Each structure stands twice: as C-alpha cells, then as structure tokens.
Amino acid sequence: MGSDMRIGFALPQFGAMADPGKVAGFARRIEEIGGDSLWVADRLLSPVNPAVGYAGAATFPEAFQSILDPFVLLAIAASATEHVRIGTNVLDGPWYPPALLARALTSIDVLSGGRLTVGLGAGWSPEEFEAAGIPMGQRGARLDECLEVLEVLWTSNPAEYHGRHWSVPATQVRLRPVQRPRPPVFLAGFTPAAWRRVARRADGWLPAWRPGMGEFQPAAAITEPLGRIREIAEQNGRDPASIATILRVYPIGTGTVAEVVDTLQRAGQEADVTDALVDLMAISRSTGHALELAEEILEAVR
After folding, report:
1. Secondary structure class of 148 (helix, strand, coil)
2. pTM higher than 0.85, yes or no?
C-alpha cells in the first residue's frame, strides 16, 4: 500500500557498527533511497551489574560496549546530507549543563541549514547518572530547567537564567539556530509526569514500540496517551493539535522486517502517525545489512 509517512533511521552508533568512517556513507545512502531523517541515541555506559537493565532486561545489550558520541555523529550526518532531517533519539537532558547543550545544538542546526529535531528524555540508568555526576533523583527538575534555559538562550538577547540547579549569568547571544524561534523540541516518556511535561513544554511526544515483543496496539501505545497529553495541553492554554508525534520503532533481536512494516502501517492507519524512525541495531549484522533492511522497509511501506 502507498503511504506518505515520513520514515527515518538510526545512524550506526553502537557495537560492530560503531565505525565513524561509515557514518557519512550511511547517511548519504539513506537520503538517496528516500529516507526522511537520521537519528542518534545517547548512551554513556554499559554497566557490568546494572541496577536497572535495558528495556526490561537484566543486562545491557553487548552493542552498548562500543558507543559513538551523538554530537559527533550529528555533525557528520549534517555535513554528508542535503535535505533529510537529523535528530536526537534521545539526549538525556539532565546530564548536560544547558548552556553547553544549547551551544552544541545551535551549532548543529546551523551546520545542517536548519534540519535539527531535538529529542530529550529524563534518563533512567543509575550508573550513567553516577558517571555523569548528576543526582538521579533530580532528573525531572533538571530536565525542566534545561528546557527553560534552552528557550531563554534561543530566544533572548541578552539571555540570563537563575534556577535551583542551573544558572546562566547575563550573556550576549548572537549565534542563533536557523529554525526560528528554535528547533522543534520533542520529549520521550511513558508516565503521567512525562505526559504533563510534554503537554506544558514540548512541540511533540516520542512514543515507542518494540516489534517482536507482542502484538502492536496503536490505541494503548499512541492514541490514548496522546489524547491525554493534548487534553492537558488545552488545559494549559495550548492548542492541542500543535502537539506532534514521532513514533520510535525498536525491533528486538527476534523482531522481523515484516513486524516493523506492520507497526508502521498500523500506526499510520489507526493512530494517524505521519512521522516515524526505525532503529535497526538489534536486527542488522552490519552497516551494509542495515541499509538493505532500511530499503526493504521503505519499499514495503510506500
């Protein structure tokens, strides 16, 4: 069946595919075959004995023992392509001093000619928070302040911010993102607190699904929580229709291309999803294989 869904793919960032020399070629090829966006994730560690495992497991995937920096990959992808969007899926906002984060994201938006989508999350790994030097119990409050600082630095001049966790002395800000007033900011999360943050502060929400984990239920995964988010947005004086969505699709190791395609098609048909990204890390053997799978997915959905 035909589809006008915009579909993007994760850049090769982890494990055997963590080769910075192949990122530019991968990015260019995704653009050539009709992919709409390229994405990076944000992992810091692969804990030996994690207090919280990855995606409900007891451990972390072996691929996370090799990690490329997300900002470096964004810069490579921005330089190697012309029109696909590039995005973060997702940066752990509480880890970063917001002034440093604003500088990096602004630079990437300028480098790409205004193609950056900023996806942020609160984080969840205790070991990563320890390594970042940030108390995990403060992650929600720090993410809120991070969003406030980014807004100030992107829209005010002079800019100044003084919060509980972060402060920015009054500063002149001349370098601006190409996108005005700023790049779109999406937030991840599947808790009531995360939904409230999306409704109050974000341009959109990043729901997620893992093909191979059971039957995809668009209502439970997308439609119902998005309805709640939009209801809260309206209560806060925002246009509920302004809250966009980008579906993140993470097939597990036993997931198949057919299940990915089914997820994308049903998300479009049953939940009106128009934007999605697919992370092929768990089901691809190499960068070349990931490109083959990406082309197969695009052909099947469109």
Report:
1. helix
2. yes
